[in-house]
UniProtKB/TrEMBL annotation:
Residues 143-208 are annotated as: Disordered. Residues 10-142 form the Response regulatory domain. This is Response regulatory domain-containing protein. It comes from the Eukaryota. InterPro entries: ARR-like, CheY-like_superfamily, Sig_transdc_resp-reg_receiver. GO terms for biological process: cytokinin-activated signaling pathway; phosphorelay signal transduction system. Residues 153-166 have a biased composition (Low complexity). PANTHER family: TWO-COMPONENT RESPONSE REGULATOR (PTHR43874), TWO-COMPONENT RESPONSE REGULATOR ARR9 (PTHR43874:SF167). Belongs to the ARR family. Type-A subfamily. Keywords: Cytokinin signaling pathway, Phosphoprotein, Transcription, Transcription regulation, Two-component regulatory system. The modification 4-aspartylphosphate is found at residue 75. The keyword Transcription regulation applies. Functions as a response regulator involved in His-to-Asp phosphorelay signal transduction system. Phosphorylation of the Asp residue in the receiver domain activates the ability of the protein to promote the transcription of target genes. Type-A response regulators seem to act as negative regulators of the cytokinin signaling.
Length: 208
């Protein structure tokens, strides 16, 4: 049962190096992940339904629904669009921001690593990536799925609250109209109150 549950996690691996792509694909499949590989950041965005021109989301939506991506793992150094650029575009998208992103690089540059982690990357793995590195991925995927579910729940709560406010407004309006009709039936202006009197100390009257 555990193996079947893990196989549902789909990782999109992005690397311009064929050798590195084959390696990460083999490691992910050995760890029971479903894997899709692409060789550039632009192709990754197209697969995710975003696209560089932000206009291909509708055309790619059916493909995206058939194969939901639970994580993106990308090389840092790639032509045209770096792994950092890809990370930024994913995190700037309201539809994709909860997808965890892991960066890989053969260069150990602290400033680069810190920048990626500060801007939303879950992990920064140094190449060559090892099988033991795959064990770090599942907790991030589960956290991303929880965030996505919380976002959906919050949206549903907002809709429910909006519906409740509409009902309350309608009820309040009905009550106000009923009060006005009652006042008119009694021959009073809706904006005035009937005078009230309270007798105190014998003959003195106090107007309420």
């Amino acid at each position: 049962m555990a193996l079947a549950a893990e196989s549902q996690f789909h990782v999109l691996a992005v690397d311009d190096s064929l050798i590195d792509r084959k390696l990460i694909e083999r490691l992910l499949k050995t760890s029971s992940f479903l894997v899709t590989t692409v060789d550039s950041g632009s192709k990754a965005l197209k697969f995710l339904g975003l696209g560089e021109d932000h206009g291909s989301a509708a055309s790619s939506s059916s493909e995206q629904l058939e194969a939901e991506v639970n994580m993106v793992i990308t090389d840092y150094c790639m032509p045209e669009m770096t792994g950092y650029d890809l990370l930024k575009k994913i995190k700037e998208s309201s539809a994709l921001k909860n997808i965890p992103v892991v960066i890989m690089s053969s260069e150990n540059v602290p400033a680069r690593i810190n920048r990626c982690l500060e801007d939303g990357a879950e992990e920064f793995l140094l190449k060559p990536v090892k099988l033991s590195d795959m064990n770090k991925l599942r907790p991030h995927i589960l956290k991303g799925k929880c965030k996505d579910q919380q976002g959906k729940n919050n949206s549903n709560d907002d809709l429910s609250s909006s519906g409740s406010r509409d009902i309350i407004t309608i009820n309040a309006s009905s009550n106000l109209n009923s009060t006005k009709r009652k006042a008119m039936d009694e021959g009073l202006s809706p904006g005035r109150k009937r005078a009230g009197f309270s007798r105190k100390n014998g003959n003195s009257l106090t107007v309420l």
